[in-house]
Amino acid sequence: MIDQLIADARKIIIKFGSSTLADKDGKINTAYLSEFADQAAALIKKGKQIVVVSSGAQVAGLSTMDKWARKKDLHYRQALCAVGQVELMGAWRRVFAQYGLHIAQILLTREDFDDPIRTLNMRNTLFTLVDEGIIPIINENDTVSVEEIKIGDNDNLAAQSAILWSADLLILFSDIDGLYDKNPKEFPDAALLEEVRDIEAVRKNISIGDTNSFGTGGIDTKLQAARQALLFGIPTVLAHGGRPRSLEALAAGMQKGTVFLD
Ligand code: ADP
After folding, report:
1. Is 84 in the pocket of ligand 1 (CB under 6 A)?
2. b/e 216-227 (16+ beta carbons within 10 angstroms → b)
3. CA 257 / ligand 1 centre spacing (Å)
4. pLDDT tens-digit map of 91-102
């Protein structure tokens, strides 16, 4: 099913969570980024178009400004993301350059999606970049995003971006193989749900286990993202981004995940 969706999709948007992009020491995992760039370049050669939604600015910022690790107030957190965003994009730029690919940075807020003129500009820029073979890398603009105007999580940002770009497929790479009937980190007997057609029904039926891991974003924002994307006919795949060559493995039908579709 997932392999078929990838085969059929021309425009694929791929979101990475921070946990997927960071290594054990809390630094941006450049070997991982490089492995992804290699897989993305191969797909692009086959005629696919790719847009990336990348978290990780805070992680990258912390490894640069480690003395700020304990500073919790908003301005420091935003400043940290401003520092980290440069590091993050530098890392993405270097890995894609190995394949002769240019990248572009797009920083967005919720207000951008609410404004029709901005939306039009974002859409035109995205299309132009992708048509020119450049890989747009989207993140939330943390410098201006205080709580009230925040999308707040990159799952929903990825879904909105997928809708904006009229993507054929949204892939959410996380540190889990997909949606389970209960949190697999607490329950070893949790079962992977490989196909979800009714998100609301599933939401009521799956055990949320530890409410913290479910309630604070986590899997819930992924369900929101999938629901949003599906409203516009865009199927969503939730899969483990940290398996060996995950994108290729999914495309080859060698890796399992959860697919949300109509
Ligand atoms: P990311 O940083 O990739 O966006 P999150 O950590 O926010 O990912 O969300 C994924 C986590 O959600 C998983 O690691 C898992 O511990 C937790 N989780 C809670 N309930 C479930 C469930 N029913 N199925 C899958 N994961 C779940």
Report:
1. no
2. ebbbbbbbbbbe
3. 13
4. 999 999 999 999
